[in-house]
Amino acid sequence: MKRFLSMILVLSMLVMCFALTACNNTTTEEETKTPAEDAVKPEENKTSEEEKPEEETPVEPVAKEKLVMATNAYFQPYEYYDGDKIVGIDAEIAAAIAEYLGMELEISDMNFDSIITAVKTGTVNFGMAGMTVTEERLQEINFSISYASGVQSIIVKEDSAITTPDDLYVEGASQKVGVQLGTTGDIYASDDFGADRVVQYENGNNAVLALLSGDVDCVIIDNEPAKALVAANEGLKILDTSYAEEDYAICVAKENTELLDKINEAILALTANGKIAEIVAKYIK
What we know:
Strands 8, 9, 10, 11, 12 and 13 form a six-stranded mixed sheet that branches. A five-stranded mixed sheet has the order 5-1-6-14-7, sandwiched between helices. A three-stranded antiparallel sheet has the order 2-3-4. The protein is of the alpha/beta class. Strand 3 (79-82) and strand 4 form a beta hairpin. The protein is built from eleven helices and 14 strands.
């Protein structure tokens, strides 16, 4: 009997020990969670696509409308090359006009006698090349108000028998006169002396070279280019008396009255604020 009770007691103790061990090995769901599971889920810590600030797209500058000018860049100081760039009085005044109109200037260099055709056909917007208003030209194109004045001068060799313009008009005079094709010097000389005595050249440089070589006896050209040509070539001089006086203007196609009005407005404004006078003074001392 005692042995039986002892066995029961031992079995009871074993059951209790087993129960205690089981309790110690049992953990709650909370205790078995890993630190990663306790952390906030990545999705809960991210800003949604809708909430992300949009990146600013760089604003492209608006391209300005081009204003294309035709010129003949062999007419210093009004237009000439400085390296690859065309500079001069007309080039700077044209740039100031374009800026006033909120446009971008582009200069197209061509033969002087091609300028009016380019303007008429719309290849360019306007022509500006020390150009004088004449009745003949007004039949084909319109002109702006004047922005500068000029003088037609006569270049001769230092030992020339031509001392005044009157020497070209005396009875029996036969001197050959060099001019730049299509200029007012060409127009005036052709009217005054006839086609037989006038020799036309593509530009003033070529006309002066012809004078130096003896192919012509004098050259008629605007005074400011004349001064530059004489300074660059020894043995030449300008006669004291001018051949003609004139005003320079910008030529525009007859049907383009809107542009003509805008150019006139710009010239008036740039004259009033002294900009044109400042540009001219920069080149003509």
